[in-house]
Specification:
Layout: H1 2-33, E1 34-35, E2 39-45, E3 49-55, E4 63-71, E5 77-83, E6 88-92, E7 102-110, E8 116-117, E9 120-124, E10 136-143, E11 147-153, E12 165-170, E13 195-196, E14 198-203, E15 206-212, E16 221-226, E17 236-240, E18 246-247, E19 252-260, E20 263-269, E21 278-286, E22 292-298, E23 302-306, E24 313-321, E25 337-339, H2 342-378, H3 385-388, H4 395-406
Parallel strand pairs: 1-8, 10-18
Antiparallel strand pairs: 2-3, 3-6, 4-5, 4-7, 7-9, 10-11, 11-15, 12-13, 12-16, 14-15, 16-17, 19-20, 20-23, 21-22, 21-24, 24-25
GO cellular component, one term: external side of plasma membrane
Keywords: Glycoprotein, Membrane, Receptor, Signal, Transmembrane, Transmembrane helix
Pfam families: IL6Ra-bind (PF09240)
């Protein structure tokens, strides 16, 4: 009996020791799983870069950092992993819309993926003031490889005397631009490196367009549109890669003709370009009805359109460069070229068939009248002697009377 009790006590002791060791082990594992999150996140930037940095107190394993950057409205997100010695993250400003709030988050984790920290976050808004004072519909194109042309519309709440100025920076000329702490008027600190876009388009005294030339191909252009004399106008940030925003000059239509009753042939030229990677839209409009037919073609400068051309019509075209990774902006529409329909052709012929015989008939009548008068002038009629000599038949007496009267 004593042996049985002793055996039970030993079993109880072993179970108690096992539970205690397991609890301590779980407690240690729980402590090891909780890595410290990154701290002291800071953001610095210039016109072309956003640079985040942080501090870390984790040294229990080989650390890597998972970073994500996103804007408030855009669905585009940039996420990346870094090794332990990279406690910073840098992206190009062109990836995100700087006119929106930028959200940054980072967490640390062991390289084996077993332990990680909580996320550390930082949200930044670069602008201040009423967003309705900033320009809208801002767009820039590289026109025919000649110059950069930008257009925009004034903000809804902008004052009538607003004076928008477009500043731009070329990346290849500002690769070593200093990083600074962001604030709403940050672009003022980079005015010494900015260039000014020359206004060319005004509406009611407010500039709505500007242009400038570029001497060589640049990788990227950054823009800020602001009123330098009025801080209540919210600035607007934008960017472009010129080679991806090349706008062709309007094509020139060289020929339109009718092949048969239902086919129209059109041909055009695109200035200074081969037709490889060029897409063209053709717009055929019937003048009497206003109905339009739009067709497109790639890689060629002609097209046959199936249309009923019994009525007069106009054709105009526009072109753009296309690639597998991007589509460039369309050119402006070409000048209209007008073609006459079959009904117009027959109407003209009928009118001519009536007018020409009528004109010939009138000309013949006029000629006959003129010829009769001309004949009378050249060959006047012989006068009647009886009328000339008083109506008597005595020739001798009449002659004597005539001579006496004459002399």
């Amino acid at each position: 009996m004593r042996i049985t009790k002793s055996w039970h006590s030993h079993i109880f002791l072993a179970i108690w020791i096992s539970i205690t060791v397991t609890t301590q082990s779980l407690s240690l594992d729980s402590q090891e799983e909780n890595l410290f999150p990154p701290t002291n996140i800071t953001l610095k930037m210039n016109i072309f870069k956003l640079h985040w940095a942080w501090e870390s107190r984790n040294d229990t394993c080989q650390i890597k950092y998972n970073v994500c950057v996103a804007t408030e409205k855009s669905s585009r997100t940039s996420c990346r992993s870094h090794k332990s010695f990279l406690s910073w993250h840098e992206v190009k400003t062109s990836i995100f819309n700087l006119n929106e709030r930028i959200h940054f988050k980072v967490h640390a984790e062991c390289s084996d993926g077993k332990r990680k920290s909580e996320e550390a976050k930082l949200s930044t808004f670069l602008l201040s003031g009423d967003p309705n004072t900033a320009v809208t519909n801002f767009r820039c194109v590289w026109y025919n490889k000649e110059y950069i042309k930008c257009t925009w519309l004034p903000g809804k709440s902008a004052s009538p005397n607003v004076n928008y100025t477009v500043l731009y920076w070329q990346e290849n000329e500002n690769s070593k631009m200093e990083l600074k702490v962001p604030h709403p008027a940050l672009f003022h600190e980079f005015l010494n490196t900015a260039k000014f876009c020359r206004p060319y388009l005004y509406k009611d005294g407010i500039p709505e367009g500007c242009l400038f030339e570029i001497s060589n191909i640049v990788e990227e252009l950054q823009f800020v549109v602001a009123d330098l004399s009025n801080k209540s106008i919210t600035p607007f940030y934008s960017w472009m890669i010129p080679v991806k925003m090349l706008q062709l000059a309007p094509p020139v239509i060289t020929n339109i003709s009718k092949i048969d009753q239902y086919t129209i042939y059109a041909r055009w030229n695109v200035s200074g370009r081969k037709m490889d990677h060029v897409e063209t839209e053709i717009n055929l409009t019937t003048l009497n009805t206003g109905k339009s037919i739009i067709a497109s073609v790639k890689g060629q400068n002609w097209m046959e359109l199936k249309a009923n051309h019994n009525e007069p019509y106009t054709i105009n075209v526009r072109s753009r460069i296309y690639h597998y990774d991007s589509n460039h902006p369309w050119s402006e529409w070409s000048a209209n070229m007008t073609g006459s329909g079959e009904s117009g052709y027959w109407t003209t012929n009928v009118i001519l068939a009536i007018l020409i015989p009528a004109a010939v008939t009138l000309l013949m009548v006029f000629s006959i009248v003129c010829m009769k008068r001309l004949h009378s002038y050249i060959f006047p009629p012989i006068p009647d002697p009886r009328k000339s000599f008083g109506g008597t038949n005595n020739l001798r007496v009449n002659i004597l009377q005539y001579l006496q009267h004459a002399y």
